[in-house]
Amino acid sequence: MIRAEGFRTVRLPVRFYSHADSRPPYTINASFMERVRQVTQWATDAGLNVIIDMHHYDEILDDPAGHKDRFVAMWRQIAETFFNAPSSVWFELLNEPNKALTNATLPDIYEPALAAIRQSNLARPVIIGGGNTSQLDSLRDMPMPDDPYVVPTFHYYDPFDFTHQGADYITPTPPLGATFGSAADYARLDADLQTVRDYMSRTGRVPFIGEYGAIQNISLSQRATYYGAISHAFASIGIQSCAWSFTNTFHLSNNSGWITDITSVIATTTD
Ligand code: GLC
Q1: What is the Cα–Cα distance from 19 to 35, expressed in whole angstroms?
Q2: 3-state secondary structure of 150
Q3: How many domains are there within the chain?
Q4: What is the pLDDT of residue 270?
Q5: pTM here?
């Protein structure tokens, strides 16, 4: 269904830590790992790139040192499971680091996890995001491992009060009613494109937008405006993007199938 709609990549958020022992050697449940392997295989067979993303590992955000060994052990196991997967399968170390995981502290967990992955996957692309939930500004001082196969990511939900209006998991919840499309909104988007251009010329790396989107509380026409504007703007400077999401409160599909008012306006680059 995803490939048939024209998408090339699926980012697969996986809550590995809920299925791994809390004590050494931190074994990931075999049938859960098999399920991830099966879904990855289906996507691969459909011709999609797959990003295996460690999502919602909330406990490591409060106590990185206490969870480092477990994080590294999980990545060692995931890497060994997928060591012979095609190069279209990518790893993403951790979704939206924040709290105690800042750009200053992230290398403490990223470097050993990457080293563990490299023992079995020498050239597997590995995506890393910066602190502060990987917002665009996190690129400014995001530490980059000395590894040519590491790809930086950021998430784009600006203006946040528009994209997350009524999101009850945000405190305080942004009120309903914000709209997108003013001259100021587009000026900000232009400035954000410049931030990305500056990052690319400074580092020589091309980042990737792992998530952008607008919540279901917003009218369909406003959501479509946002998905179209953001995807086109970043595609125009060569930045690939993943729309969030297939299903959940930012859904692009429902029980009747795709919400084509949105999927039809999504653009991406061709290379
Ligand atoms: C992050 C969260 C996810 C949420 C999304 C938009 O990916 O992990 O739960 O839906 O951002 O807020």
Answers
A1: 12
A2: strand
A3: 2
A4: 56
A5: 0.96
